[in-house]
């Protein structure tokens, strides 16, 4: 019977690190489809919740992150959500608001290892209301355009 704890094993530190790095692939996982307009999970005619594939699950995670304020709900970790509410009443120029919105959204979405980059921001102002959109790319080079809104 082979020894569980080999005494004369010739492992180098770099081999161990390579094996550890090879085993750390990012998993996308699955989820259930959520209808953001209705505010509830999608259900089949037979009453079962509709499953989302890996890409849809990642997109839903991104959308939910943009819609959720950080630290507001104790069920979420302290890394989840955005801090856009902190911009309300700051009284700075629009360019500063846009820069901060971009930074905060990037910070929120890049906490997930499935997200590779967040760019392509566009802003539309209507009074104190700032609507924005951005392009989010996954590590699989899948892209989605997300939209958000902040009332300053």
Task: Say how many strands there are.
Answer: 7
SS content category: alpha+beta
User: What is the CATH topology classification name?
Assistant: Nuclear Transport Factor 2, Chain: A
H/E series: HEEEEHHEEE
Q: What does this entry show, briefly?
A:
The protein has 152 residues and is α+β, with helices and mostly antiparallel strands. It has helices spanning 13-22, 54-67, 94-109; strands spanning 31-32, 34-35, 40-41, 51-52, 115-126, 129-138, 143-151. It has a single domain, classed as Nuclear Transport Factor 2, Chain: A, CATH 3.10.450.
Q: Please, could you describe this protein's structure?
A:
- This is DUF2634 domain-containing protein.
- InterPro entries: Sheath_initiator.
- The protein is of the alpha+beta class and 152 residues long.
- It is 26% helix and 26% strand.
- The protein has one domain (28-151): Nuclear Transport Factor 2, Chain: A (Roll).
- The protein has helices spanning 13-22, 54-67, 94-109; strands at residues 31-32, 34-35, 40-41, 51-52, 115-126, 129-138, 143-151.
- A 3-stranded antiparallel beta sheet has the order 5-6-7, covered by helices on one side. The protein has a two-stranded antiparallel sheet with strand order 1-4.
- A hairpin with a 2-residue loop joins strand 5 and strand 6.
- The longest helix is centred in the C-terminal third of the chain and has 16 residues, at 94-109.
- The radius of gyration is 21 Å and the shape is globular.
- The mean pLDDT is 84.
């Amino acid at each position: 019977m082979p020894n569980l704890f080999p005494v004369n094993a010739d492992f180098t530190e770099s081999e161990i690190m390579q094996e550890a790095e090879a085993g750390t692939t990012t998993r996308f996982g699955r989820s259930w489809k959520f209808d953001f307009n209705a505010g509830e999970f999608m259900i089949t005619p037979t009453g079962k919740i509709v499953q989302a594939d890996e890409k849809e699950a990642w997109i839903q995670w991104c959308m939910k992150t943009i819609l959720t304020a950080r630290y507001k709900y104790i069920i979420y970790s302290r890394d989840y959500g955005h801090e856009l509410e902190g911009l309300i009443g700051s009284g700075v120029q629009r360019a500063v608001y846009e820069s901060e919105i971009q930074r905060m959204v990037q910070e929120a979405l890049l906490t997930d290892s499935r997200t590779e980059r967040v760019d392509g921001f566009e802003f539309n102002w209507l009074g104190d209301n700032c609507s924005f959109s951005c392009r989010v790319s996954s590590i699989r080079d899948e892209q989605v355009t997300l939209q958000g809104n902040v009332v300053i």
